[in-house]
Design goal:
Blueprint lengths: L1 H14 L3 H9 L2 E10 L5 H12 L8 E8 L10 E7 L2 H6 L4 H10 L3 E10 L1
Antiparallel strand pairs: 1-3, 1-4, 2-3
């Protein structure tokens, strides 16, 4: 009998979630930075393409930046924002460090004169 009880206890322990891991999972947030651009008059297609490539190239340069997706806004409700992007960060702290990263600042130096932008950040469970 005892042998069966030990086996049953071991199975129950393996099946039960680790309380620390479960608590961390419950608190885990998915952090996104979303942006849209209205291109200013005179912005060329080459400049738009350069922006898309440069934003995508931040992947691997910015610590904690997990994913980057950019492209045309296909929504009929876009209010003039024709280019959109979404970035996923490891956590809120990584997102908070992103604006001051030298690679981001270098991008902004030439990009800001070409755009009117909207930015939104989202922490979701």
């Amino acid at each position: 009998m005892r042998k069966g009880s030990l086996a049953a206890s071991a199975v129950a322990l393996l099946a039960a979630p680790n309380s620390e891991a479960a608590a961390a999972e419950d608190k885990a947030e998915v952090v996104f930075h979303v942006f849209g651009f209205q291109w200013k008059a005179g912005t060329s297609e080459a400049q738009k393409e350069k922006a898309a490539l440069a934003i995508t190239a931040l992947q691997g340069q910015i610590p904690g930046l997990l994913q980057t997706h950019v492209g045309p806004n296909i929504s009929p409700r876009g209010r003039g924002y024709t280019f959109m992007g979404i970035m996923q960060f490891k956590d809120k702290e990584a997102l908070e460090r992103y604006p001051q990263h030298p690679a981001h600042l270098a991008l902004l130096a030439w990009l800001l004169p070409l755009i009117d932008a909207i930015e939104l950040d989202l922490c979701a469970k």
